[in-house]
Amino acid sequence: MAFTNGGAHFLILFSFTIFLCNSASVEAKPDYRDALAKSILFFHGQRSGRLPSGSAEGITWRTNSGLRDGQMAGVDLTGGYYDAGDNVKFNLPMSFATTMLSWGAIEYGRRMGPELANTRAAIRWATDYLLRCARATPGRLYVGVGDPNADHRCWERPEDMDTVRSVYFVSPRNPGSDVAGETAAALAAASMVFRKVDPNYSKLLLNTAKSVMQFAIQYRGSYSDSLGSAVCPFYCSYSGYTDELLWGAAWLFRATNQVYYLNIIRSLGANDGTDIFSWDNKYAGARVLLARRNLVNNDQTFQPFRQQAEDFMCRILPNSPYSRTQYTPGGLMFKLSASNLQYVTSITFLLTTYSKYMTASKHTFNCGNLLVTPKTLQRLARKQVNYILGENPMKMSYMVGYGTNYPRRIHHRGSSLPSVTTHPQSFGCEGGFQPFYYTPNPNPNILVGAVVGGPNQNDFFPDERTDYSHSEPATYINAALVGPLAYFAGSK
């Protein structure tokens, strides 16, 4: 999430003219398998640390970066992902992206084909880093690297970073139940992904998840309160930390089947309704995950979570009398103006996954007089995925590199600046602004698979680099889309 100083916004007329001149429509029938491969490839472009030899095809413009991350605290915190178009590692959204990638692999791995191995690699790049964060220093959970305020005053490639790489952590004296709960969820979910293919790694992930979750439960508090401007306003925990405790406990229960975590879930009393699901607010995701136990395993203990999950669906479905969700004229779910597609992809994941659970149990439910079948949820999910891939009023794919008409001026430092391979000299902190940030020229490097923030409530997308709320990609937008893409890629 890159907040930059100022921004020369180009005339909408100019931007619209560009699209009229470049309005070749994407294929009539979406190629879900191609989109799936590209959505995972995107993570190569976000990698921090020492990159393996033989760069991913299509992302050859990235090289090593952040090799001294953690040195300020005397620990190794290399690796992980830059969250969006900036050069900071924020562990709350990174962990959520990891959880969603893992959930996608768990639910849809059989439909992924050769992309399952690539998905596992994307997950492991994150979990290797999260393990370092959790295990480097007893009594500390490291939760971020890089001063976001200093970083956002610069426009430079990750390979050239010369801003301070501050290290942030939570501890018993400065708790962070939200970031710890999400980290535990990511590690627990990933442990299930690797259970059969790498049992020892899976055990390490699960044992670490348990200890991080214990820390989250025992020392309660929000990391926003503990860390202040290091995480706010970028990734404040606006929803509080109860949702992450519920989410973390739900994932540990799924991974272990231990009653201890079920008792924690019951003790939280998190019964408020919601109509959103995101890196910040996990209630809906936790309820869908727990509802599975009722639908698939016929365990009546979990019936309340099924009811909560269905209340959520009733708030999303456009024809439901309880709907609280706005849709654009072109049919896109519209939750918030800043980076709206993050909510679309996350909620779409819940739609496909809940429909999968309903199909397994031959279950239907009602929103008032509206009968909801698995196909009801599938149709809405497909509409959202197809819109992202180009079935929209602008005939634009919001996934970079998919189709022929996609965003060319994304708000992303590495993509917008010439690669180190073509321009070895550093541009410096502010040297990239005038020639590359403010130019109307397309980005020199294509960040294949990146899904941007998306269009406004009127289905219009200006393709302006300075307009980060619409043109910036993020790991958590992509991570949630991988599952639905796999679902439709594997459907007959």
From TrEMBL:
Record's signal peptide: 1-28
Q: One Pfam match, by short name? A: Glyco_hydro_9
Q: Name one GO molecular function term.
A: cellulase activity
The record lists the membrane-crossing segments as none
Q: Write the Enzyme Commission number(s) for this entry.
A: 3.2.1.4
As its record notes, the protein acts as a catalyst of: Endohydrolysis of (1->4)-beta-D-glucosidic linkages in cellulose, lichenin and cereal beta-D-glucans
Q: Where is the active site?
A: 411, 463, 472
Task: Decide whether keyword Methyltransferase is in the record.
Answer: no
Give the UniProt record's GO annotations in the biological process aspect: cellulose catabolic process
What's in the keyword line of the UniProt record? Answer: Carbohydrate metabolism, Cellulose degradation, Glycosidase, Hydrolase, Polysaccharide degradation, Signal
What is the enzyme's class at the highest EC level? hydrolase
> Where on the tree of life does the source sit, at the highest rank?
Eukaryota
The record places domain Glycoside hydrolase family at 32-484
Q: Which family does it belong to?
A: Belongs to the glycosyl hydrolase 9 (cellulase E) family.
Name it: Endoglucanase
Q: Which organism is it from?
A: Handroanthus impetiginosus
